[in-house]
Structure formats: C-alpha cells, structure tokens
Amino acid sequence: MQQVIPGQANTVQCDVVSKTTADPIVSGTAEAFLLCTAGENTGKWWDGSDWSETEVSCGEMSYAGGACWQIEIAADAWVYGAAYSLYAKESGGLNLVYTEYISTWSSPAVGRGGHAWTYTVTDSTTGVPLAECEVWACTDSASSNIVARDHTDELGQVTFYLTPGVYYVFRRKSGYAFTNPDIEVVTE
C-alpha cells in the first residue's frame, strides 16, 4: 500500500506484468487508472484534471525499472480521508496482476513536518551514488506505515521532512539488492 500527501502532487506506482506469464512489462505504453474507493469521490476515476463517472485513464505512466511503472498525479486528486485504487493497462492489453491500494496520510504533518533529513544511497561495491533509487521511510519494520517516499537525485540523495524518532528505511532499484530495512534515528 502506498500513502500520499493530500494537497500536493504525488508520484504513485504499480507493477505491470503479463497475466499469462507474470513477466514484467518493460516496454510499450502503460496507462494509469485511479479510482477513488472511499471518501469524497467514491466510485469515480481521475482523468488527469477532474473526477469522472466513467472509467478513464489519468495518463501515461513511465517505466521505472523491473516491473515498476510510475506516474505523477496532480494535487487536486488527493483528499484527506480518501482511499484509492491504482491500476494499469498496457498497450498490448495485458493488465497488471494486482491493484495497488493508496490511502491518504493519517497525519498530514508526518513526512512533511519536522526537520529536513537527508538520506544517501550508494552502490555497496563501488561507493558511487545511486540516482533514481526509490526510498521510503516507515514507522515499522513491516513497511505497513509509510510516512515518506521519493526517489534519489543524481547525488544519490533524498530529503524527507520527519519528526524526530526511529524510522525503517527501504530502498529499491532495478539491478540492485538491498538489505531492507535500514534502521535510522532522526534527531532535531
């Protein structure tokens, strides 16, 4: 499950795989569909600028590595207390195997409030910074309460705004194996 911050654009993602072979879809066109499942717009699809009564794509996703595809969805889509279902359809008609559930933050200050905290990801063999590595911070080791998520920049860094405490940091990038989670203590 992914969590998003209402009132700002959020990048969301899902795996797109062949229903028949379970192989990752790595090329072609993947269209994203965002359905509100609970809250103000229940039963409606986001069309990229507004909510629609009929199923409509919210835009074309970009390939992020492995089976992962992602899309940035505008701030107007995200409402406090709502839940969403994200799914994709690939140009060849191969739909993803599962749906990614998305919910809004239970506390808007988590992930946005607090002090800037920078985390760096490097290749464990070469020490070279890893750009475009997905990083997410959680309050639990099972990764069920995600409080911040983003991708590293060209220096292998990502900055989260976290309140002081212990966080479990997870990393994912195609071609790399990480020992997750990395336990970090954020101080003032």
How far apart are the first and last residues' alpha carbons, in Å?
A: 29 Å
Q: How is the largest sheet built, in terms of strand order?
A: 1-10-9-3-6
* CATH fold annotation of the largest domain: Immunoglobulin-like
Mean pLDDT: 82
User: What fraction, in percent, of the residue positions are helical?
Assistant: under 10%
Strand content: 35-45%
What does this structure look like?
A hairpin with a 7-residue loop joins strand 12 and strand 13 (146-151). The protein has no helices and 16 strands. By secondary structure, the chain is mainly beta. A five-stranded mixed sheet has the order 1-10-9-3-6, with no helix packed on it. The protein has strands at residues 2-4, 10-15, 30-38, 45-46, 51-52, 59-60, 62-65, 68-73, 83-90, 100-104, 115-120, 134-138, 146-151, 157-162, 165-172, 182-186.
Briefly characterize the structure.
This protein is mainly beta.
Overview features:
single chain, 188 residues, mainly beta, Immunoglobulin-like, 2 domains, 5-stranded mixed β-sheet, 4-stranded antiparallel β-sheet, 16 strands, 44% strand
What is the topology?
Layout: E1 2-4, E2 10-15, E3 30-38, E4 45-46, E5 51-52, E6 59-60, E7 62-65, E8 68-73, E9 83-90, E10 100-104, E11 115-120, E12 134-138, E13 146-151, E14 157-162, E15 165-172, E16 182-186
Parallel strand pairs: 1-10
Antiparallel strand pairs: 2-8, 3-6, 3-9, 4-5, 7-8, 9-10, 11-14, 12-13, 12-15, 15-16
